[in-house]
Amino acid sequence: MDEAGYIILLPIVVGVILFIFPDKVKIVKGLITLIISLLTSFFAIRLYQTESTIVDLSIFSGLIAKDSLLYESISGIGTYCQLNIDPLSQLITLGISFFAVIISIYSITNITKEKKLYHFFPFFLITLGCAIGAVLSDNLILFLIFWGILGFTLYKLIKGYDEESSAAAKKTLILIGASDSVMIIGIALIGMIADTYNMSELNISTSTGIGIMAFLTLLVGSFTKAGAFPFHTWIPDYTKKAPAPSSAYLPASLDKLLGIYLLARLCTDIFTLNQWLSLIILTLGVTTIIIAVLLALIQHDYKRLLGFHAVSQVGYMVVGFGLGTPLGIAAGLFHMLNHALYKSGLFLSAGSVYQQTGKSDLDELGGLSKSMPLTFIAALVFALSISGIPPLNGFASKWMIYQGIIDFGKQPGIANQLWIIWLALAVIGSALTLASFIKFITGIFMGRRNPELESVKEVNILMLIPKIILALICISFGAFATGYFVPEIFFPVVGKFEFVGVWQSSFISLLVVLSVILGLLIYLSGNIKNFRTADSFVGGEKWEEKAAFPVTGFYDTIRNAKVLKTIYDKAEKGWFDIYLLTKHLVLSSNKVLSKVHTGVLTDYAIWIFAGLSIMLIIYLSV
Asked: What DSSP designation does 53 have?
């Protein structure tokens, strides 16, 4: 089981070594990163093929002299440094290593042009090693160490080149760090309840107050990392200012895999949830879907739009785990994997557009489909997939979630009786997602081209390969979902289950392909050579350019709709931003406490005496 150790240590050690290399040789550092990512993927594949087992650091004892102090130290901490190799950790590890390869290929040329982002590749590899370490950790203490390091690397993978980007990085670090602090409390409570920190040995009931508190504190860490409401607000700010590889690597893929992995552990292994906790999780899930997609609809910056959708899609995963059934959990995991695929592709597509145009405002773009045809086709596949259009993978996992909700409604319980609400909001969220990605595709690739973008060309092959691979996987995961991928990938994790309703992904895919072919034949059968395009000519003047209506204009009417205007106004003021709310609370408290500091010695003596008196009263009462 040496793969378990190599897959963690190799990226971390090489990442630390890469700090020695100057940034002038970024291409060399990028190639080394790609090689290490490929090696990590090789070990991940081998690990995926092994049997479930628990491994500790004694596997490395053969490399160290038995009479050395290091050997004795490792032997002593082996019980705390256990690794859990099971189907769930194997699946997530394979996903993490795969996305590392995809992003590293893209980054070789993209990051070399980012002159203000230092040490990207070292932090990239350290993030890779620590992410796998967190997933494979069985002991919660070891898990927390890797998890905490990831918060720092997340901060370092966004460049602070101006005040806004520095604020986004700081906000990310504070929110992630605060959630990690809350998780420490939860882990301590688990130690009090179970007298062990090994996840494979835990099965805590949530029928007691301390059990519920332990679950909720760890849920905060899961939701913050994944980006679920109300701890989601760092993601849109991060994706707006971070380079495309950082956004695709972390908020789009790794953070979703890690956050949902922890949620899976909490809901299926560590705790046994009561019906009220299931109700809370489902409520937060659908709230995440609706609020984030509504905010995405009105965005003009396409990076920020993608950031809000990275939040919205988490809601579907949360709903799947809130159902608690094998079908629901499998659907949540499937959507987690699908989201990482198409959202990484969307961020890479957005990064390609930004690199070639230098613009991120939809009002300044348009007509790039001819200039960047491969990027357009890939982005279209990703956009249709996230919108839940059959036969792509986004539809497959969303359909499973809908099936799981319907099946969930057949059981007794408070949350079960509200199944129609969960289903309706999930479907509405998908429809709104389609509406906002019509805006995304139309605003960037369709319509009249901005005259400033006449010289724009397609990106190089290294930036195209990752998008093409991801697009092909999105198609294949959707076309062969029920017949192959779901049984092969998710049955080992959650157990075998039956699909609800009638749906065969391969048959639906065949019908779609036949419809497309028939449509093309009908189109080609006409005399298409007679078609021509011309500008509008009214009163001796060309009016088409003057009368052009930007795609964002229609969505501004949604912003000003009476029903939604109040929500949007509150959102702009930070009513849904837990970071800003906490910041205002702390600053207000500081103003109150600052009045106490008068500088008069007798006043300080009174406060000291009052504090000691309160402590004495508490001590005597206990």
From this structure: E
pTM beyond cutoff 0.70: yes
Q: Where do we find the tokens 């849904």? A: 576
Give the 3-state secondary structure percentages of the chain, helix then strand then coil, rounded to 5.
75, 5, 20
Amino acid identity at 437: F
Sign of CA dihedral 391, 310, 333, 435: negative
CA distance 551 to 553: 5
Q: Which residues of 295-305 are buried (b: 16+ CB within 10 A; e: fewer)?
A: bbbbbbbbbbb
The CA–CA distances, whole Å, from 319 to 35, 123, 415, 423, 503 equal 38, 33, 11, 10, 21
Fill in the DSSP letter of residue 198: B
Q: What is residue 116's DSSP assignment?
A: T
- For the chain, the structural domain boundaries read 273-525+543-574, 578-621
Cα–Cα distance, 42 to 206 (Å, whole number): 40
**In 64-160, where do the E strands start and end?**
83-85
Q: What is the pLDDT of residues 348-396, one digit of tens each?
A: 999 889 888 888 888 888 888 888 999 999 999 999 999 988 888 889 8
Angle between helices 275-297 and 302-323 (to 10 degrees): 160
Q: Three-state SS for 494?
A: helix
